[in-house]
Write a structure and sequence with these properties.
The complex is a heterodimer. Chain A has one domain: Helicase, Ruva Protein, domain 3 (Orthogonal Bundle). Chain A is 62% helix and 0% strand. Chain A is built from six helices and no strands. The longest helix of chain A has 19 residues. Chain A is elongated and about 65 Å long. Helix content of chain B is 65%, strand content 10%. The chains are: A mainly alpha, B alpha+beta.
Amino acid sequence: MRALVLALLLVPAAPALADSRMAAAAYADTQLADPAQEAKATALMHTIRCLVCQGQSIADSDADMAGDMRALIRRRIAAGEEPEAIRRWLIERYGDWVSYAPSTKPVNWPLWAAPLLLVAAGVLIARRRFRRRR
Amino acid sequence: MIAEAGLAALWLAAALAALQLVLGLSALRKAGVAPGAGDGAGKASRQPFSTPFLPSAVEARAGPAIGGPSTTLGRNGRGGGHAGPSTALGMGGDEGSQAGPLTALGIDGGGGAGAGPSAAFGADGDGQTSGAAALGAAIRPLAIVQGLLALFAFACLIALFVRSDMSVKLVVENSHSMKPMLYKWAGAWGNHEGSMLMWVTILAVAGALVGVVERRLREPTLIATLAAQAAIALGFYAFLLFASNPFARLNPAPADGMGLNPLLQDPGLAFHPPTLYLGYVGLSVAFSFAVGALVTRDVGGDFARAMRPWVLAAWIMLTIGITAGSYWAYYELGWGGWWFWDPVENASLMPWLAATALLHSVTVLATRQGLRTWTVMLAVVAFSMSMIGTFLVRSGILTSVHAFAVDPRRGSFILALLILYIGGALALFALRAPTIREGTPFDPVSREGALVGNNLLLSAILGVVLVGTLYPLGVEAVNGEKLSVGPPYFNAAAGPLALILVALMAAGPLLRWRRDELGALARRIALPALLSVATLGAVLLVSPIGVLPLLGLALATGVGAASLAPLWKRNLRRTPLFTWGMVIAHLGIAVSLFGMASESAFTKEKLVAARPGDTVAVGPYSVRFVGVDPIAGPNWTALEATMVARRDNGAPVTLKPQARFFPNPPTETNESAIATRLDGQLYVVLGKGDDDGRWQLRLWWKPFVTLIWGGGGLIALGGALSLLGRLRRERTAHDRRAYL
């Protein structure tokens, strides 16, 4: 427990210790000390689009901007922010494009309804093929 | 000179395709089966086709008893050699020389050149139908020559790349004289024009192969099939010649080329696109068969049995292509991911899903005469997915709808082709589907019932992937809003459906055809189910993991056991090869699922900034970072790290990941280093260095990750065994008929 508290105290302080360029890199490719927080951060990073790449999340991109965004996410998670709050902040700033998880806005309702509609349509079509059981 | 020869071959092939289409259409029109002529006036003239062969021949196949004398005759006529007067075909001499070498090669299933159908053509004895026969007989050689020409054009392009002919624009843009030979060779298809030429070549060669080996279909259906294949080819020849000429010259020629994207400079490029394209375009044969069968109203068991090997072969290639592509992305991109739900990946997954469904429904049609309309529909859908995939990848629409709008020539060309072919096929389907007689309905608890479930779920997954892939494009086109649909959507929407499908896959092969009892099924599946529950409990005890991976692991063990159950208490040496194929393919699904679930649940990740001499612990390994040295390759320089990994007291393993720099064009890539063990892979990547002498290292321990691709390999192997078994059984059945 003491180690955890120590880590939490140290992590936000780290940028002050090193020069700024190294700080960004450190956050981009260095994990948070708390495995639970790191897991949260990684899960979020896998669903955030790298804005300068083609079809990659920031979790699997070499681009500098992706590294900066990873650093930002780790910093905010370490500061105790919830992943969905960070996602909302990113969407506000960069638009829906940045999140791989489609929102629940009306424009996405057909998208989310698609699986259910498809299965329902399939069942309706298939039912005609079956013989009633005697 | 080579470029001009290739271009000329392409033009000639296009002309032949046009001729093939026109010949086919007029042969069908004269015979009265073309869609235009057939419906109104052709009622009477269609009779010669349908009476002797349909539906009696189909029904005779379905039942265990040998059919009436007329059907036996009809079938012998087709199988047994030159029963009919070959002069009715109008080119006896040519035909003989054509059939001879083929029979000697052993690929000629029918022993002769369609004597039965020729009898059918000549049955009326009127001039029109024999004219149709003459036209129809020319269509096979045409398809073959067209295929050879396309192959020649493609060979010309490869020759240009191999010789580094810098007067050709495509070579300049995608090659460099200093490139290793393998990548000069493969560079021919590592670009837009070249890959489209490969696409068309495979299409034409597939058509030629149909012309060479296909003896099972009735002649009119074959003619319609080859005409459909030519129609598709024609559109894509036009696309190449007018919008993507691979042979365009550059004047003046530059001193050297611009090089190939270094990410593509990997042995993967040599094999991945050709296998994937063989699968993609192989499905065109199923599409053309479906169109042919719709035109001649010939949807039955024979059609299904003729189509099955083609679908299987294409499906095997797709499976290998997707599996290899996934592994390629995994080790080449350097972040340990193996599937990204990227639109380009989805473009290859969609035809695979459709082909998998088709593979299963075609079996119902071949064995039980059921699901006729549905099978035809799937055959149309499968290749439509290939074309949609080609459109998505080749039109540039994926980068942005706007990029597409800025240079819409290529994109709208393919889009027009898409609408023409898919729309045309669907219209034909809508026109003819009501006339297809469905087989007898069946009980929900039966093998057929399970296969319908398989089709339903696969189609729903296909729909989800299709909707998810196209949705952002649609929204942006409608109101300009840019949004992303990625892994969170696909996992949530398709994941549960896939798990239900896998569970159903355990039950399906244990069910009897026609009708079975739920109680009996429950007894047969009790042990595997128990295994699943035990796995569930064991995993929950060890560590809490996500719901999808947890269910995946539990299902994988049970389904793996259940997939072997069809072999239980059987004489393994007498078990047909295609049963082995099914068992191994289904086992492959379970194995792959286990790998995916294990990877996503138990992967250990370590990202560190380390100095030489530091030791990093990841999973069961402790890895010592020895240092970084500069090295040089044939057309790159690199920084190479040396790491020594140790597990418990085992022997040390040396790993050497590189950060490569390519000067032509200037690009940096990461070459990961991977140590493969029975229970997983240790995956290490060298990142950037800092001024302090520290290096960014990325390390992963991925338990059982190799099972993902191992399972993929098993699936393909199962497909290959199944294909072999089907062809062999056909051969023996044919021999038996010949001696009757």
